[in-house]
Amino acid sequence: VQPALGRAAVSVTMSRRYDSRTTIFSPEGRLYQVEYAMEAISHAGTAVGILSNEGVVLAAEKKITSKLLEPSKTSEKMYMVDEHVACAVAGITADANILVNYARQAAQRYTLTYQEPMPVEQLVQSLCDTKQGYTQYGGLRPFGVSVLYAGWDQHHGFQLYCSDPSGNYGGWMATSIGASTQAAQSIMKQDYKAGEMSLQEALQLAVKVLAKTCDSTSLSADKLDIATVTRPGGQVLYSPLPEAETKVLLDKAQEEAASGDA
Length: 262
What we know:
The mean pLDDT is 88. Helices cover 41% and strands 22% of the residues. The protein starts with a helix and ends with a helix. The strands form two sheets. A five-stranded antiparallel beta sheet has the order 8-1-2-9-10. By secondary structure, it is an alpha+beta fold. It is built from seven helices and ten strands.
């Protein structure tokens, strides 16, 4: 028994050598601190992004920790980065604030230099380069936040991107971050109609996904943050959805779920 216990202790000690820093690979080729950052995000409120023909929908669950907490005047899940780009976040809010400020500055520098809005993917790539740097240099920890980016530019029209703490990013038609990601993805795989979704259908799908995946037993409109990026009259517009409209969408989703169960 003693030799077996000794081997187990050595194994634990060896694994601990590799998860204290982001700059050291484990023998299996893993960066444990980056994986731990992704694990932190999996406990955050769910955020969903859906691309439609008429724009992009971002929706997120707000985690209300106490009834005594005063509702925030500004959203902690949705941010306007530039006039043509918005984002939703899941993870550590303080980390998200740093990244959003960086993205805003990058967008403004580009506009000042070239007198035109920064292409959406270029902005995403710039932010992801910064995130990647925090996984490669000693004394730093990865940002504990994933981001959904929604925007429009003259090169690719409406776009939706998702990035994680490693600095990887990808373009999506519909995706989610935060808790219950797998359940949300499976619902969207079934219900998403590529190239055929109107903005209203995308809004309804986003609320349906959150209604089915949120931890809260009694989901209400004040626990949801929804925003759209559209282009009415040739002008890109970021529009947070009023609570009354959110309630109408939520009631409809709950009715459909009840009729489906019956």
